[in-house]
Amino acid sequence: MERFIKAGRISAYNMRMLTENIRIPAMIVIVFLFIVQNLSSVLLFSKSVDIPVTPYGFVFLVNDFTCQFVMIAGAVVIFSNAPFENDGHSYMLFRAGRLPWALGQVIYIFKMSTLYISSLAAATIIPFIGNLTFRAEWGKIWGTLAKTDEGSRFGLIFSIPESIIREYAPANVLLISILLEWACVVWLGLLIYFGNKITGKSLGTIVGIFFTLLDICIANDWLDSAYRFSPVSLAQINRYSGYALKYKINLAYGVRFFVFGILVLIVLCLLANYIDKIKRLKYDRRKR
Predict the structure, then answer these.
(1) CA–CA distance from 271 to each of 12, 180, 194, 258, 264 (Å)?
(2) Dmax of the chain from CA atoms?
């Protein structure tokens, strides 16, 4: 129990460091404003017909490969400074111990992912304050934009798939989309941490960039079977149709992918700290 308490304190220390690392808050603000800007056309259309908007915009932004690319790229930038070791790293590692330190970094990734996704979800609602309605159905605005080309008149630049409106209940798919996107960001954060920690370089960040670009490649008629190992694609509910079904890729597969992948990556991140210790001992012996 004491180890978890120490790990919690380390993660809290990392969260406090956000006030000193302006890059991370700046990236959150940039992606936040990007989402607000994308939704401005929906707000304009809503006001023109005098019909309020239901708060389900997050679903459509996640399922648009361009918007998804920007949101996931923002997450890669946020975690690119892994393994989050500053000048006080050696002192805190000595005081806390290697396992609590490693657990603290994993907990920080979970916390940071939650903060990031919460900010994005808020960005899909805030623009509509004063013109928002909470209903258990999609509403006329999203339905009209999905079934007609009305959005082009107001500068809509992201897609609103009619299949999502036809096949899913809005509240359910909103919750699923938020959880899938959160799992994707956690998955990438752990992967980046492990890669950077184990190599002492930015290999994890490079691999994270690869997976971010992989979704765009698949969306542009690349290898359809790549859906199986593309976390960015599997975070999009609309991907579980069409060619994906041919490869038995459905929501259940996506859930298994993220749950199993996150658990394996957590273990690897913990082990990476001990492998790092072995490397340092070998290096010290060589110097002697």
Answers:
(1) 22, 26, 9, 20, 11
(2) 78
Buried b (16+ CB within 10 A) or exposed e, 153-181: ebebebbbbeebbeebebeebbebbbebb
The candidate with the shortest Cα–Cα distance to 236, out of 13, 66, 14, is 66
- pLDDT tens-digit map of 3-41: 778 888 888 888 888 777 788 999 999 999 999 999 999
**Cβ proximity of 121 and 179 under 8 Å:** no
Q: How far is residue 26's CA from residue 10's CA, in Å, rounded to a whole number?
A: 23
Q: What is the pLDDT of residues 160-185, one digit of tens each?
A: 989 899 989 999 999 999 999 999 99
Cα Rg of the chain (Å, integer): 21
The distance of Cα 39 from the centroid of its chain, to the nearest Å, equals 19
DSSP track, 121-171:
HHHTTGGGTTSB---SS--HHHHHHHHSSHHHHTT--S---HHHHHHS-HH
Please name the helix (run of DSSP H) or strand (run of DSSP E) that holds residue 95, with its range, or none.
helix 89-96
Q: Which uninterrupted H or E stretch holds 70?
A: helix 65-79
For the full predicted model, state whether its pTM sits above 0.85. Answer: yes
How far apart, in whole angstroms, are the C-alpha atoms of residue 154 and residue 185? 31
Closest CA to 75 of 192, 174, 157: 192
Q: What angle do CA 235, 238, 242 make, to 5 degrees?
A: 120
